[in-house]
Fold:
Amino acid sequence: MSLTLEEANRILRAALAKAQELNIKISAAVCDAGGRPLAFQRMDNAIWASAYATLSLAPKLAPDDLA
Structure:
């Protein structure tokens, strides 16, 4: 199953809304099953290094059996 950009952005919006509800600043990425980034956002005032950490960690979390 592959994600569309619209679906990836919907996932990001939900993640950012939850972070706002928890009053935390995050960076979030959505990758396809092969670990390739589809969408990324960093909230205003989120730690700048979180962008690098998010983009390097997200592909490692993609399920290998779907790649």
Observations:
- Residues 24 and 54 are 15 Å apart (CA to CA).
- The first helix runs from residue 5 to 21.
- The two ends are 10 Å apart (CA to CA).
- Residues 5-62 form one domain.
